[in-house]
Every structure is written in C-alpha cells, then in structure tokens.
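Thread: pyridoxal-5'-phosphate complex, take 2
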Amino acid sequence: MTAPALARVPLQDLGEEHRPIASELDEAVRRVLSSGRYVLGSEVAAFEREIASFCDVAHAVGVSSGTDALLATLMALGVGPGAEVVTTPFSFFATAGVIVRLGARPVFADIEPATMNLDPDKAAARIGPRTVAVLVVHLFGRLAQTAAIEAACASRDIPLVEDGAQAIGAWDGTREGTSHGRPSQSNGASGRRAEEQPGELGARRFATLGRAAALSFFPAKALGGFGDGGMVLTGDAHLAERVRALRVHGAREKHHHVLVGGNFRLDELQAALLRVKLTRLPGWLEARRRLANLYREALADTPVVLPPPDRGATWSSFVIRVPEGRRDDLARALADRHIETAIHYPRPLPAQPALAELGYRPGDFPEAERAAGEVLALPLYPELRDDRLMRVVGEIRRYYGLG
Ligand SMILES: *Cc1c(COP(=O)(O)O)cnc(C)c1O
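Output below.
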C-alpha cells in the first residue's frame, strides 16, 4: 500500500484567488476590449480615484510598475547625479536600482533586527549634505518606524519617500492602548466612509508618512494584477502633476515636452482588473492577518524566530528566521514534503554585483547580512486553508524533532 500523497502547499495560489471573481474579471476584460481605449483611459482614472480613497491620499497616478513608480517619484523630486538617497540595504533590488539609474548614490543604513525594516536612528544619522531624499521600505507589509526619520527630514527639508510595494493597507499596529478594530478618522481628501478605512483611530498609515509613496501591482503582491503595474501616491498636487507629465515623456500637452520622462503608462486592462480585485482587498488583508496570527501561535515553541506582532501589518509575506545556519536545510526538508518556501532576500543590496562600485564591504551592514542568511518565507495567501497551514507547522515541528 502506498502512503496517501502529501498535499502540495504552494507559497501563493493566484488561481484560487481569482476563481471566485472570475465572472467579474471576465466582464472587466470585455468592457476594456470593446472600449477601443487601452492605455490611460477612464479605467485608469477610476482606479486612481479608488486607490487614492483606499489609501486616504489626495492624488494617485497610475504607472507601469512599482519600479517605475519609484523612478518617476525620484525623477519628479529632482534626484540626479551627485545626490545621495538614504535607504535600506535589505529590500528588493528596485529600491536601490532606481537611485543608481538616476546617477545618484544609495547610502545604506542597517536594519532593525526584529522587523528587518530600516533602523530609523541609523538612517537619520546617514543624512548628510548631499542627501536629497530618504527612501523607506515597509518590508513584508509591516510599516517602518519613521518618526525619527521624518523629524530629521523635516529639519533639513528633505522628502521622505515610501516604497510601499509590499504595504498597501498597512498601518502601525504596534502602539498599546489603541482601540481594537475601530476605524480610523479620515484626514484625507477622499471623503470616504469611515468604516471602509483600514487601521485604528489615529494610527499612522502607509502613504501618509512622507512626501510620496509607491505601490506595485506585480502579480505576487497583495493587490496583484495580470501583468505589471504601479502607482504613485502623494498629497502634493505639484508633485502629482510632475509624475503625470513624466509618465508620458514629460508632455503636459501632446507633442510639447517640458520634461524628459519615460513611458510609465498604466494599461486600461490592468486598471479594470485591479478595480475588481480592490473591492476584495480588505477581506484579503484580514485573512492574511488571521493566518499570520495562526502561524505565530502554532510556531511559538519552536526554535524558529517569529516576526513580531503588529496588528496593522498586512503580511505580504510571512517571513521567519531560521537560526544556527539551518535555513537552507529546513527549506530543503520542507520542499521534500511538498511545501514551497522562498528567500526574500538572499543577499543584501550593497553585496549585489551590480552595485559593487559603491564600494561597500562585508561587515558594513551586519544585521542585513545576518537576515539574508536566516530569512525564510512560508506559504501565506488569503485562501490558504487552516489545515494546510497546520501542515506547514507540523513539518517544521517534525524537522526539529518536536513531533
Ligand atoms: C516588488 C517590489 C518593487 C518593484 O515593483 P515592480 O512592480 O515589480 O516593479 C519595489 N520595491 C519593493 C520593496 C518590492 O517588493
């Protein structure tokens, strides 16, 4: 007799995410195909309004990717040769890549070991005479602590930019004494009904901490499209207008180019499909939070190091740390049991070959280097069934001989 086949547990399952909304997605596609307009039309405009409302910011500009959202934002802020941008050494490559593409220099500050977000005091200390911006990343859907950075930026009139590619809907849920589940007060221009707003009363929220914020709609993100897409969010009307021009090669009117921009346009199809998915996002984020708590409870007595609690985190990935050099071994053991994992990120940005000429050396960012050797993302997506999650937990316990 053969043993029953082990169910495969994927890291993500976009097919399951789309199945219940298939007819709405089909309808959105039909609407766009028959409209005759395929880039920057009414679907993009409507999606921009809806995202602005969801994030409680005044302006949203749809662009071609999260990378281009960051690039266009830094271009609009005038980042260029000779300038420095303070940022984190532990992120996806795009965070540093956009800075280098503009001829500027990324100046890294190490991360906090527990959250793996930029250490605010270290970041503030790296602000110098050439610094023209600070770019924070809300890693894995957890809001970075930015108060010290905001204060340092304000005193020097330097813009803070949020890389929110992993952070749509995130708020700071680390403070004690806030009311559970109470909706936050609207302080944006949207006039949205209070009960639709994410976060707790008075909580600090993604996209409202700095001058501008970037979103990615890459398929694997919490709000993922069917291809590439991104958005720039800002409360600054002038900045929004510059990004709008930059996304069409700097033209404010057709064939009148006042800036050198790029083709950073968002497709109508992506916008129409993402509008359908946006209506489900609050429920999906709640599901992610619930599953993250399940993991945290069920793994509490194992040797793996768990991400700290944060009621406002959206868990775009659930990333544990595997101490004692056992990360790759555990990942292999899980793969053998049909459990998919991922490493975000195996190498700190300053150690990437493409950034070698910045001249950083091993040992410059000890916390980022240690994280790169220990992180392991476990399966987490809104449709993940509890029994599948408990299978992942069970296999980790088995690996450590915990039965
Ligand atoms: C995904 C991601 C990006 C880039 O977004 P794309 O849409 O893939 O270009 C930038 N920064 C971070 C932190 C990301 O996770």
